């Protein structure tokens, strides 16, 4: 399993890209996608919705379970990935590329993000 170095991670297995003009992309990690199994439904936050760091903002349903989606940052959702809504399996097949979930205009600096090394340590042995 290979997590991109340039991303930040959460203990809940979401990833966050570096912000460009204040907007960052959010997705779930390959570790989370594998743990979920085949994702069959994605409920993402809507454009214009305000999300709060660490709070639930959607859910992913798989053949195994339903899992809450947590926002790694606070801000306003500026885009939701309609491709994932139409084809939730993208979360499994391309969690760091086409399977991203939403984009958010960050309103305050996130507090509890992990580096790649910290995230790798968190998931080691699981």
TrEMBL record:
SUPFAM superfamilies: Single hybrid motif. Belongs to the GcvH family. The lineage of its organism: Bacteria, Bacillati, Actinomycetota, Actinomycetes, Kitasatosporales. Its cofactor is (R)-lipoate. Residues 23-105 form the Lipoyl-binding domain. The modification N6-lipoyllysine is found at residue 64. It comes from the Bacteria. Pfam families: GCV_H. It comes from Streptomyces nymphaeiformis. Keywords: Lipoyl. GO terms for biological process: glycine decarboxylation via glycine cleavage system; protein lipoylation. Signal peptide: none annotated. CDD domains: GCS_H. The glycine cleavage system is composed of four proteins: P, T, L and H. InterPro entries: 2-oxoA_DH_lipoyl-BS, Biotin_lipoyl, GCV_H, GCV_H/Fam206, GCV_H_sub, Single_hybrid_motif. This is Glycine cleavage system H protein.
